[in-house]
Specification:
This protein is mostly beta strands. Helix content is 7%, strand content 53%. A hairpin with a 3-residue loop joins strand 13 and strand 14. It is globular.
């Protein structure tokens, strides 16, 4: 519901302005299904229509069902002027937290020039849908700080030449163990099984805190120390390369038993390597090198 105004004048682009309200906006229903195996669709998106009109639109929605999360009490300002689209403030509630997104897209030339920024504070994990499962993370909160700029006519092309940063923080949460097997092995259970505790496999792994911080340069997220995860028993540090163009990764992680737990040297593998395509990476544990605790 709402109101729209269309102004058509000689020798000028049509100008559309107005305000709209929706109780339930399903973004997923508006997107075409991509049948390829790629995480980032390489299907070109035609946005040349942005050059055909000017726009000034305000949208409010009780609920927006997005790609990875659901926003409540959301608002969006959308403007188009001379072939440049600006969405400077898409924000809404995610549980007790908030998510804000800014997008600028220049459609005057191809490939399109795109800038995206996203900030999330105190996001409730049970409202985040990863790998089609909103139950991957339980409790705690997620902090998001993402900024990317690049060009492209598809999501894959944009990601393959993007610059910026990706930072995620996870606090006081539990991670579903079976989903860690998406990375070719039950990572933390494999690590913990080397500790002489005879501990049974847990359905959820307690995470005190975790940080992923990767600068992105020309489609590659590269950081030698971009990963840090702390559980009640193990600290994991690592880094490597995430190639968004090839949709592949090569990460090196170094698990270490936390002090004060009575572990001796040799209870953990010194290095584990996770490498391969996004859809099927593999993990190799190096049990020959030992960790001093």
């Amino acid at each position: 519901s709402g109101e729209l105004e269309l102004v058509v004048a000689a020798d000028q682009k049509p100008y559309v302005s107005g305000q709209l309200y929706s109780r339930n906006l399903d973004v997923l229903a508006l997107l075409e299904e991509d049948e390829t195996a790629r995480l980032f669709s390489d299907k070109p998106v035609d946005l040349d229509w942005i050059n055909l009109l000017d726009l000034d639109l305000a949208l409010r929605a009780k609920r927006i069902n997005g790609i990875i999360t659901e926003l409540s009490n959301a608002s969006l300002s959308l403007g188009i002027k001379d072939g440049v689209l600006n969405a400077p403030n898409l924000n809404g509630e995610v549980g007790i937290g908030r998510l804000a997104t800014w997008v600028t897209l220049d459609a005057r030339n191809k490939p399109y020039s795109i800038v995206i920024a996203m900030l999330g504070e105190n996001i409730s994990p049970d409202r985040v849908n990863l790998f089609g499962d909103s139950d991957i993370i339980r409790g705690g909160q997620i902090e998001i700080d993402v900024g990317l700029a690049g060009g492209g006519s598809s999501v894959a092309e944009f990601m393959s030449n993007a610059y910026g940063k990706i930072q995620l923080e996870l606090l006081n949460s539990s991670l579903k163990n079976e989903n860690l097997e998406l990375f070719g092995a039950d990572l933390f259970s494999s690590v913990l099984s080397m500790i002489n505790l005879n501990q049974r496999k847990m359905d959820y792994l307690p995470i005190e805190c975790g940080v992923i911080h990767f600068p992105v340069v020309n489609g590659d997220a590269i950081a030698s120390q971009g990963i840090a995860i702390k559980t009640d028993r193990v600290t994991v540090l690592g880094g490597g390369v995430i190639d968004f163009n090839q949709e592949a990764m090569e990460l090196i992680i170094r698990p270490k038993a936390r002090k004060g737990l009575g572990f001796s040297a040799g209870t953990l593998a010194n290095v584990a390597k996770i490498a391969g395509p996004f859809e099927n990476p593999r993990m190799i544990l190096n049990k020959s090198a030992l960790v001093q605790t």
